[in-house]
């Protein structure tokens, strides 16, 4: 257990299927930027569909969710999508991770919980022998990732992006 500033205990761990409802709720809050719910039916429908999708993904080893919880309540999440690279003579089993879905409930922010989750995720990534973690942070979260050691890389093979759908 790690300590929150106020002395509350919290635990960081890999999510399990029983956490799916909490993951769906946190995903709603992340995607809506914690805006007040204008239409509860829209939220309810999203949560149900998200829970279904997350349940289908639960057995897939290509995505993991790390959570922080206190008193049985999930207060933060961080997800990693594992990407397997094509085999090469130099790296037959190459993999990297896409860090996404990073969210902490507003009342628990700036207490070291995101850093603790990211530490857990980094340790997991090292154990999984991932080459790197990639994140596309929001403008406001750049300093958080930079404090943790993320940096802009000027690699000769920086990715080019082709947007094929607007995400709807």
From TrEMBL:
GO molecular-function term, one example from the UniProt record: acyltransferase activity, transferring groups other than amino-acyl groups
Pfam families xref list: Acetyltransf_1
N-acetyltransferase domain mapped to chain residues: 10-168
Keywords carried by this UniProt record: Acyltransferase, Transferase
PROSITE patterns: GNAT (PS51186)
InterPro entries: Acyl_CoA_acyltransferase (IPR016181), GNAT_dom (IPR000182), YpeA/RimI_acetyltransf (IPR050680)
Domain of life of the native organism: Bacteria
Family matches, as PANTHER family: ACETYLTRANSFERASE
Protein name as annotated: N-acetyltransferase domain-containing protein
Native species: Candidatus Fukatsuia symbiotica
